[in-house]
Amino acid sequence: MKKMFLFIFAIIPLVSFSVVTLNLSMFSTEEASSVLADVQEKILELLPKEATITNSSTATFSMTFFLSYNATDNLYVGEWKHGNEVARYEYNPRGYKYYRDFVMECASFPLEKVSVYLFSKNEFPDVFRLTYHPALDEYCDFSSRYLVFSSERLSGNRNLFLIDRQNGELLPMPIYGSSEYFPRISPDERYLLFQGSLHGNWNIYYMPLSPDYSKKIQLISRGRYASYNPNWIDNNTVVYVQEDATSNHLVVKDLTTMKEKTYYLPFDWVFTPAKGNQGIVFVGLKESNFGIYELLPDGTITVLEDSPYNEFDPDVFENYLIFSSNRDGVFRIYAKDLVSGKVWCLTENIPYDAFYPAFSEDGKLVAFSVYSKGSEPDIWIVRFRIPQD
Q1: InterPro entries this protein is in (predicted)?
Q2: Is the domain of 252 the same as that of 327?
Q3: Angle of helix 33-46 versus helix 99-121 axis, rounded to 10
């Protein structure tokens, strides 16, 4: 009979207020005990300070983890059970997966229960890590109900996931045979716009935020060249980038009539359009320099931010612009007051590259992707603060 090892975490701070508590019962076979210890250590290392691990029966989350090793197949299997939910992870030392990623997969299940719960309750610090899975998580967008992002955590393919901001659920929205990028929720929160590969090439699609979404996917772009970087102008109008034989251009399309307007701009390339205060904000490349500009309704182009450091990934809320830029050797998320011209950093305490910022619907939060060294990106959140000096 195989020996079993049991870890029951019970870490109760002397003076602390916990927003969320975890009751974790963790078991392993003898051969997997060292791996179990590594999973335990990773959970303790990354657990948000707003959470406490306890043995109380009234914990916010009570879950069981079992880790086994099959010598015949040289396979470790870790399995979490939480109510009716089961999460299973596998690792073969001779396979493609890194050991550190297997440990992180196992640790990510309780960590994300905590982080998503804190996010749904708005009980998190000014700088907050939202996702922990070792697979890629990037390209966020908000609505009052959801946060959407693209992730490779489901079978290694890029799929869309929703975090329900009301009940803390993580909801996968797979589209089989396709990879999805740059999801955007419509202003009325009824539709999801995205870049996908359902027809082989990169195209622009939209679908309803409903259980039968996969049956109602609509193709927006056309032509044999790639289309990418979609965004909403209003509930019936979208903008995206369309490649052609030598460069690319912006397309604005009415989803009711499917009529479109094309904008060939005086740049080598254009990227990531977004709705601005007056027109369409975009990144323009000219003479090896990336800057952020706004295309106004009369066809004129104004400069919003064009420094020697290059700027990417713009988003606008009221009079504030956010973007990614490398101004000190690290790509960080910056904000600019478009009235005063003041620029400040939102991620100065994160020592890794950060990209793809997105304002929440009320402008109080900014979500973005952090690319930690040696790891795939994760979603982080900062509270948007305007300096008072």
Answers
A1: 6-blade_b-propeller_TolB-like (IPR011042), WD40 (IPR011659)
A2: yes
A3: 40
The yes-or-no verdict on residue 282 having pLDDT over 50 is yes
Do 309 and 173 lie in one domain? The reply is yes
The overall pTM is greater than 0.70:
yes
CB 346 within 8 A of CB 356: no
Last residue of a domain, one of 75, 95, 118: 118
On the question of pLDDT at 198 being above 60, the answer is yes
Q: What pLDDT shows up at residue 13?
A: 43
Q: Which of 177, 183, 265, 262 is nearest to 221 (CA)?
A: 262
What's the chain's average pLDDT? 94
Neighbours of 171 (CB within 10 A): 12
Task: Provide the 3-class DSSP secondary structure of residue 166.
Answer: coil
Three-state DSSP state, 274: strand
- The angle subtended at Cα 37 by Cα 35 and Cα 43, nearest 5°, is 105
- For residue 223, give the amino acid letter: G
Q: What is the DSSP letter of 296?
A: -
